[in-house]
Automatic annotation (TrEMBL), chain A:
It comes from Micromonospora kangleipakensis. The lineage of its organism: Bacteria, Bacillati, Actinomycetota, Actinomycetes, Micromonosporales. PROSITE patterns: KS3_2. Residues 7-407 form the Ketosynthase family 3 (KS3) domain. This is Act minimal PKS chain-length factor (CLF/KS beta). GO terms for molecular function: 3-oxoacyl-[acyl-carrier-protein] synthase activity.
From TrEMBL, chain B:
Pfam families: PP-binding. Keywords: Phosphopantetheine, Phosphoprotein. This is Act minimal PKS acyl carrier protein. PROSITE patterns: CARRIER (PS50075), PHOSPHOPANTETHEINE (PS00012). One of its GO terms (molecular function) is phosphopantetheine binding. SUPFAM superfamilies: ACP-like. InterPro entries: ACP-like_sf, PKS_PP-bd, PP-bd_ACP, Ppantetheine_attach_site. It comes from the Bacteria. The lineage of its organism: Bacteria, Bacillati, Actinomycetota, Actinomycetes, Micromonosporales. Coiled coil: none annotated.
Length: 411, 85
């Protein structure tokens, strides 16, 4: 990496959203500012016999309108959501991949479950009818890297491609890798991610963590940092972001785009019972150091917001240790979507960049008895001059990541 | 004896492997390489599975190598019909 490439950094020039809050940046951002929830009773299958019956589902998504005909039967719903978001993100960035060198474009996405709905369908055919009934596309559709591969093929992007599977933290890890590639000279990286595991098999796998809320009321089930926190609700979808080398973006007139990825760090929790603290605090500190910023330079924190009392307390302690008690506005717009795993952090990063653009911190919906140590933004959006946002994400199993995004201009 | 036509193939390809926006399956495609129509070996394995289940004729995986165009595919499948009577 040349010094100049590192200095110009990585900018986000396009955003595509397929989330429970809506399809497209405008619908999503409007839902977030209005506090309009995308969580409702699961309709992708009959959830009656399950202990969790509510989730965030992408409203009005029709694969046949958004996905190339030949890819629909070959790929899972999760990849459909990502292909549509990738198209939107490229359009938003004003990029025509056909006009760019194929080896200078890369694809790095996050995925935590792979194609569970597709996989369940094929497994049903296996045990009902036998092996010869399992479709050939099962060999590629379930695979964690399927989204990355299909985006790469569809848009002719033959630079470094990969997938990161680190549950909710994976979205930041993917964007961290996208930033690394952009800074090392690759022109453009399609990054971010989606997940979609709202089928019986997918939901059952999620139940195994014991962290889903079984409260039978969609307005009360997912209340992060609230005295009544009982776990979280799952969701589907996410966001795809176009990360560009800053110099290339400037040369083609895209400027700073929505802002830069200024800092990133990843950590991993010590094993349970070790007595050592979780990785979040030092991961935040490392991300700030990577961005060469002080805590005072951060204007808002988009929390991981697990909604589980122990994880919320650990996150509150980490934020308070770095920023001081009530030292920085904290928000969790994922209360409108549920946790989206591989898609969650990219959507948070997208929302954070829109917040910086418009100078408004979206509020956390539903919480009425908040953790007194946090300045949780509640009730309505808070207008503030914003320069930089810190996005946090923790994945089941100990994955931890932190990313600073926003304007690179100093005060 | 059952016979398998080009239209049967068109219908099957469209339903199991989808159709590219840029591809017109209704045209004169008999001798166009399937790869050029957007159907790779995985699509042909998927097709082989459907033909086996629908018509009860064996289509071994190796047959996919001989199914390179719509015409050669239709011919192969009809030949298999003939072997099972």
């Amino acid at each position: 990496m040349s010094a100049s490439d590192a200095d110009v950094g990585a900018v986000v020039t396009g955003i595509g959203v397929t989330a429970p809050t809506g399809i497209g940046i405008h619908a999503h951002w409007q839902s977030v500012l209005d506090g309009k929830t995308g969580i409702g009773r699961i309709t992708r299958f009959d959830p009656e016999s399950y202990p969790v019956r509510y989730a965030g589902q992408v409203p009005g998504f029709a694969a046949r309108e958004r996905v190339p005909g030949r890819l629909i039967p070959q790929t899972d719903h999760w990849t459909h959501l990502a292909l549509a978001a990738a198209d939107d993100a490229l359009g938003d960035a004003g990029v025509d991949p056909a006009g760019l060198p194929e080896y200078e474009m890369a694809v790095v996405t996050s995925s935590s479950s792979g194609g569970t709905e597709f996989g369940q369908h094929e497994m049903e055919r296996l045990y009902r009818n036998g092996p010869s009934w399992v479709g050939a596309y099962q060999s590629i559709a379930w695979f964690y890297a399927a989204t990355t591969g299909q985006v790469s093929i569809r848009h002719g992007m033959r630079g470094p491609c990969g997938v990161i599977c680190a549950e909710q933290a994976g979205g930041l890890d993917a964007l961290g890798q996208a930033r690394r590639l952009a800074r090392s000279g690759y022109r453009l990286v399609v990054s971010g991610g989606t997940d979609a595991s709202l089928c019986p098999y997918g939901l059952t796998a999620q139940l195994a963590t014991g962290r889903l809320s079984t409260v039978d009321d969609p307005t009360l089930a997912y209340l992060p940092f609230d005295a009544g926190a009982s776990g979280y609700l799952p969701g589907e979808g996410g966001a795809i972001l176009i990360v560009e080398n800053g110099r290339h973006a400037r040369e083609r007139g895209a400027g700073e785009g929505y802002g830069s990825i200024l800092g990133y760090a990843a950590g991993f929790d010590p094993p349970p019972g070790s007595g050592r603290p979780p990785a979040l605090r030092r991961t935040i500190t490392a991300a700030l150091a990577d961005a060469r910023l002080a805590p005072d330079d951060v204007d808002v924190v988009f929390a991981d917001a697990a909604g589980c009392p122990d994880l919320d307390a650990a996150e509150s302690a980490a934020i308070t240790a770095v920023f001081g008690r009530r030292g920085v506005p904290v928000t969790a717009p994922k209360t409108l979507t549920g946790r989206l795993y591989g898609g969650g952090a990219p959507l948070d990063v997208a929302t954070a960049l829109l917040a910086v653009r418009d100078g408004v911190v979206p509020h956390t919906v539903g919480v009425t008895r908040p953790d007194p140590d946090l300045d949780l933004v509640l009730g309505e959006p808070r207008e503030l001059p914003l320069r930089r946002a810190l996005v946090l994400a923790r994945g089941h199993g100990g994955f931890t990541a932190a990313m600073v995004v926003g304007t690179s201009r100093r005060r | 004896m059952t016979s398998f036509t080009l239209d049967d193939l068109r219908e099957l390809l469209g339903s199991i492997a989808g159709v590219d926006e840029s591809t017109d399956l209704s045209g004169d495609i008999a001798d166009v390489p399937l790869a050029d129509l957007g159907y790779d070996s995985l699509a042909m394995l998927e097709l082989a599975g459907h033909v086996q289940r629908r018509y009860g004729v064996p289509i071994p995986d190796e047959a996919v190598e001989r199914m390179t165009t719509p015409r050669s595919t239709v011919d192969y499948i009809n030949a298999q019909f003939a072997t099972v009577g």
